[in-house]
Amino acid sequence: xxxxxxxxxxxxxxxxxxxxxxxxxxxxxxxxxxxxxxxxxxxxxxxxxxxxxxxxxxxxxxxxxxxxxxxxxxxxxxxxxxxxxxxxxxxxxxxxxxxxxxxxxxxxxxxxxxxxxxxxxxxxxxxxxxxxxxxxxxxxxxxxxxxxxxxxxxxxxxxxxxxxxxxxxxxxxxxxxxxxxxxxxxxxxxxxxxx
Length: 195
Known about the structure:
Strands 3-2-1-6-9-10-11 form a seven-stranded mixed sheet. The radius of gyration is 16 Å and the shape is globular. With about 200 residues, the chain is an alpha/beta fold. α2 (about 25-40) packs parallel to α3 (about 60-70). The protein contains four helices and eleven strands, in the order ααβαβββββββαβββ. The longest helix is centred in the N-terminal third of the chain and has 18 residues, at about 1-20. It has one domain: 3-Layer(aba) Sandwich (Rossmann fold). The model has no long low-confidence stretch (mean pLDDT about 95). This is 5-formyltetrahydrofolate cyclo-ligase. InterPro entries: FTHF_cligase, FTHF_cligase-like_sf, NagB/RpiA_transferase-like. It comes from Pseudorhizobium pelagicum. It catalyses: (6S)-5-formyl-5,6,7,8-tetrahydrofolate + ATP = (6R)-5,10-methenyltetrahydrofolate + ADP + phosphate.
């Protein structure tokens, strides 16, 4: 349990730092991230990219997702089905959003469920090796494991503010490293292997 305790401490510290970013500055940094992401991300039209709609003080990916859709990506966002599982439903312009619990909104059950080729992954902390700390529920770990079991290997790109970086993230056997991290200062590529 020492690793979980260390993760919880790092999570709390980095989320406090993220919460301290003034709203106007968060908006500006989200727009900077969108510019970097649109310049750096390469994909074929029809590629399925999962993003997320912001909760609390998260980076706002809506400008980036709109730009990626404009370049031909199919955009989806996570939907919490129960205490164990998320799926990714397609987000199309004008589709109604429903409350999905934990402060999240997403397309309703009529939206198509998609398996992402590229996952833009929310996180609370990350390190220079590409290790991440999520929010503690394990939803993304289980979703990635489910995709791997289906033989799919989505590209994993963490989404964070620069202030969420820590010196070292303690790891557990189920942890899966990121291939890259997108922040307000650009796209960083990590030397990690897909799990």
